[in-house]
Design brief:
Largest sheet: 5 strands, parallel
Helix content: 40-55%
Strand order of the largest sheet: 2-1-3-4-5
CATH class of the largest domain: Alpha Beta
Structural class: alpha/beta
Number of strands: 7
Length: about 280
């Protein structure tokens, strides 16, 4: 070794010593890092990442960034399970009486509610006082709970019999009130239908009768306020268009008398009744 160093200038020896010392220092640092299992500076870098809330999203950040949850869709099975078999009594005139080709709206409901029963007590040409008498003879003695619903659809025959039978709106309203009360006494829900447009029935329709029709219909619609009626369905507004006193052409029927509406009108009325009340029936 001394021979190898002979002739080497002292300055060069100092430089070589410094290089050797640097090499030893680097080797020691590398050995220390390997023993700890991570490169030098890793701890510092990790600390910086952990201290920065925006660097790595934690559970809170993921929750806040997630899309808002949507309400669960209604369970159709639950909706079907909540339905019940209904037993429905129909009180009315020729617009409801099957025997004279009426009651199309009831046939619609029968199709939509095949697990329910619709019993038709309507009579063609009947005025409301006659419907009341028929109710007393057939339904009033039925046990409470025999019917879940009573549908009352009448009044037009009374309105054009004001002169021949003295049927005033006061009398019509009195008889309807008795019908509604009788239905409620059976424990049934009362569904009242307003008088449909009949201005095309020109043989009997007059401006005075147009006014009394509107007066009666307004009264029927108000009966839900005190609970006399559970649901009031406005057939007048539903089935008229253009001239509000006449049946809409699409609901009229060929060779119509302007009072008896056709299949389209019955389906529209049936659909509205289903939407307002009978959607809950099997």
């Amino acid at each position: 070794m001394s021979r190898w160093l002979d002739g080497v200038q002292p300055s060069k020896l100092l430089l070589m010593a410094r290089v050797a010392l640097a090499a030893v220092t680097a080797a020691l640092a590398l050995a220390t890092a390997c023993e700890s299992g991570k490169p030098r500076g890793a701890t510092t870098a990790t600390a910086k990442v952990a201290s920065s809330p925006s660097a790595v999203p934690g559970p809170a950040a993921e929750t806040s960034a997630a899309a808002p949850s949507l309400p669960a869709p209604p369970d159709r099975k639950d909706a079907e399970a909540s339905k019940q078999s209904c037993n429905v009594a129909l009180i009315g005139d020729s617009l409801t009486d099957y025997a004279v080709h009426g009651g199309g709206y009831a046939r619609y409901l029968e199709e939509r509610c095949p697990g329910s029963h619709f019993v038709n007590f309507a009579k063609g040409g009947a005025m409301v006082n006659q419907m009341r008498r028929r109710f007393d003879e057939t339904l009033a003695s039925e046990p409470r709970g025999s019917f879940t619903h009573v549908v009352v659809f009448g009044g037009v025959n009374d309105l054009y019999s004001d002169e021949t039978a003295g049927r005033t709106t006061t009398k019509i309203e009195g008889d309807l009130t008795a019908l509604y009360a009788g239905a409620r006494a059976l424990g049934a829900r009362v569904v009242a239908i307003t008088v449909a447009p009949w201005g095309g029935f020109t043989r009997y329709f007059t401006p005075h009768r147009a006014a009394t029709t509107r007066e009666l219909n307004a009264w029927i619609l108000e009966q839900t306020k005190d609970g006399s009626v559970d649901v009031a369905v406005d057939a007048f507004s539903l089935l008229s268009c253009g001239d509000p006193d006449r049946l809409c052409e699409r609901y009229d029927r060929a060779h119509s008398d302007g009072l008896h509406f056709g299949k389209g009108g019955h389906e529209a009325l049936g659909a509205l009744l289903y939407e307002r009340e009978f959607h809950a029936c099997l």
